[in-house]
Amino acid sequence: MVKLFPALTKAVASGQISHAWLLTGNTGILTEQAMSLAQALLCTDLQVSGEACGNCTACRQVMAGNSADLQVISPEGQSVKISQTRRLKHYAALESYSGSRQVILILEAHTMQVAAANSLLKILEEPPHNVYFILTAPVGDSLLPTILSRCTWVRLPQTLEADAVIEDNAEYAKKARELVAKLNGDASSLLLFSQSFKDDKKGGLSVRAAVRLFLQELLGIFRDMAVLGMVSEGEKLLKQKITPVCNGGTALKAALEIENSQSLLEQNINITLLLDVLFLRLQDLVKKQV
Ligand SMILES: [Zn+2]
Question: Phi, psi at residue 288, to the nearest 5°?
Answer without folding.
Answer: -85, -20
